[in-house]
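Example S7 (structure tokens).
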């Protein structure tokens, strides 16, 4: 059986391949996940601060302060 040293531990060839695959996926998801969630954040900020939505948000902000006539 072929062994390979990774992080100070001896691993067989299959385990080393799985560790390598895991590291590749972890690296890929870390970098592209950051980009993906960064874009989502920017879209939410653009939605919230879009000028045409200001009137709607101001009306919604007053909902907790309205008197209920149903009581």
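Recovered sequence:
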């Amino acid at each position: 059986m072929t062994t390979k040293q990774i992080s100070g531990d001896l691993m067989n060839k299959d385990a080393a391949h799985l560790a390598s695959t895991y590291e590749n996926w972890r690296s890929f998801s870390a970098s592209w996940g950051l980009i993906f969630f960064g874009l989502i954040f920017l879209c939410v900020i653009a939605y919230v601060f879009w000028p045409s939505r200001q009137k709607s948000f101001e009306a919604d902000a007053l909902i907790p302060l309205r008197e209920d006539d149903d009581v």
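Notes on this example. Helices lie at 13-49, 54-61.
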